[in-house]
Please model this.
Amino acid sequence: MPSSTSNSDAPLADEVAVTRPGFVRLTASDRPGIAQPVPVRDIPARPWPRILAAALSLLLIAMGTWEWRMRALGLQAGDLDDGPSFWAEQRRRIDEGDVAIAILGDSRILFDTDLARFEKVTGVRPVQLAIAGSTALPFLEDLADAPKFKGLAIVGIADRSYFRGSGGLGAVALDRYRFESPAVRLSFLLHRALSRVLAFLDQKYRLNALVRLLDGGWRASVQLPINERLWKLGTVTDDRQTFLWARVESDTRVRAHQRAAWGRFLAPFPAATIMSTVERTRRAVAKIRARGGEVVFVRPPSAAELRPYEEQTVSRAEGWDLLLRRAAVRGVHFDDYPAMQDLVLPEYSHLSRACATVFTDAYARAIAGLTPRLTLHADAPPPLSPADCAVARPAPYALND
Amino acid sequence: MVFNSLTFAVFFACVLAVHNLPLAWTTKKINLLIASYLFYAAWNPPFVILLWISTVVDWWAAKGLVRAERPAARRAWMLLSVVANLGMLGFFKYGQFLLDNFSVLLRAVGVDYHPPHYGIVLPVGISFYTFATMSYTLDVYLRRALPAQHFLDYALFVTFFPHLVAGPIMRPTELVPQFAQERRATADQLCFGLALMTLGLFQKVVLADGFLGPIAERVYDQEAIPGALDAWAATLAFGGQIFCDFAGYSTTAIGAAMCLGFAMPDNFRCPYAAVGFSDFWRRWHITLSAWLRDYLYIPLGGNRHGTARTYFSLMATMLLGGLWHGASWTFIAWGGLHGAYLAAERWLRARFASYRPGPLVLPALGLLTYVLIQLTWVFFRAKTFAKAAVILRGMFGLNAPNAPILPAIELIICATAIVGLVGAHWLMRAQTLESVIARAPASILASTWAALGFAIVIEQGAGNAFIYFQF
Model:
């Protein structure tokens, strides 16, 4: 045998004798240079079946109590967590073909679009591909490279999101779409099924997130990213239909916290970044048009309290107007339409549940006026007006209202 | 698939149910083999082919070793196994690293070479199963063990899902004999196995992913320059995270195997209570350090050829051990630092052979060991040397005053978790978990078990991959 079986051959061995009374079994570290024997694992002599039964009972009681508490806080069963797998599922619909309308963008167009209303007005239910906290640009470029997409892309813009050109949550979602393992896919489907019956399944109400909420801001000037500053903001149902969470409308404390999370000054975007974004947009639009598709931009409302911060970062003239001109696209800016004025923005950035329906109605009609790619349905209901959502609806309301 | 996923929960329930059906033992083994392939394929089906290659090559290499009579022939069969396994590992894991370094080398001599991006996906757990299959051939070559008698038993040893992708790295002599006779867990084994799985998942889902991981990410993955408090907190948090991540995986794997009636070896024994670095490596990732010792350090000469050769073997083993963890110079630096620690300890032990630490010095040496180990994690966690330098400068107070990065609550979380973790390791440094549990009242065990399970449920893990999967 060429190899030694001496203990001194163990490079990592502790050569100081250590008393190990509880170590009832040796490990490979105690047996250098030999074939390791079958491990022996001792089972502590305890009444295990009874312990398991008791632990399971306690667990069920704790879970029941927790579920009750979470429902009391406003969480609802059927509120499905959004995430990369959910987005990838919708994105794959593009590859299946025959998608007439896809919505891209950030949280504004995501929260402010009522898919059912859009369908009532136009006869077409769009595929919702907007992602909170993300610029639409990489997704527009992705869509431009999707050979089967020949429909209308509605790109929602919040200037501070879009003109930064990159960043946000986009990469994760696109990566998940490009490769999603069977295990991840199945876990997503199981989680979604459980979310339909358990209210406490909510990423914003995970144990560690709740513990982190205990921070009292004791370390001054710590800068947390926006997604951590924000509390729960929305609810998500099938087809990624997302609306503002009822508690943001009804709870002044929650609303005040969310408002405070937005209003921060950002340095103006460099002109080069804006120009690069515009140029990339122009190329993506050209690709989609070359296949027979079309692109329209939409700027959803933001509150007067938030608008100055946005204008400081990138003004309408330097951003929106330039984009439409240079990329030769048409767009719907809420500033320009009376039907989009005076809508309710409880936390300054996203429309109330009721006003999302009004805004959707208005922008769907506006787009139909801009491009023949979208027409009003023969049985379309009469237009809504801001008055239809001016009065706050009683809360809470059902998710699928 | 990962243990901390709903997919695994369903998968494992099905495997347990099928394993307990009144079927012939061979049928049950075939079921386990199919289940293990499904477990692996659920990540990326085509890579099951790699498992087959690794399985078949070593099976035939061991057969050839037994038949061969001339030493040269035996060596050739052994080399076939080593080259095939390390070749596969090299191609998938180190290809990009080698290409990058080759192009740097060429640029250093004036040749402007820009290779295309390698674009190869690293198969999950390839480092683990290649080491497991190599140990099979090497044990036969070293005449430490006979080859398996049945291909089914051997194939199941390679693919057995609890250890397949992240260890513990099992030797064939530890697992193949367990397939000879029918294994079915008793009620106590099943319950204790489930308890171990709960403990492992608590470590992974709640401590590693939920509480500690984000603290390390906030400092290591951002541009901001950390001060001393943030740099230390993030590094200690990562030290806790990687232990809870990997020890959590091992504990879950041991529990899953136990539920099926199989025994797997310990992989961690309270490593943060180590006094000295040789002690640390007897407690941290035991199956890897023992593998490196048996198949690398000893063949390199071990300590049988003089002092200089011993130090060379030690350093070479640790550098390669570092490289095993990842295709990056930062991992090699991590291994090199551990090699230097071990060499220094060996020198000190020889210089002060009669010294035995007293009751006060022992914890102080333990604390020193712990702190020095944490310093090595900087190279393990930082993606570049530049980032490692920033963190180290921060830890030694050499960064200019900057805005704090971590909110106070995360400092509290970090301190609580680390004091709890290190304290638990010290309390249990000379005990097994089983010996502690055996003395605990049943009511405490039930309450603790329920609390751990409840914490896992309400943490709602996002199914993050275990850190060691990438190795």
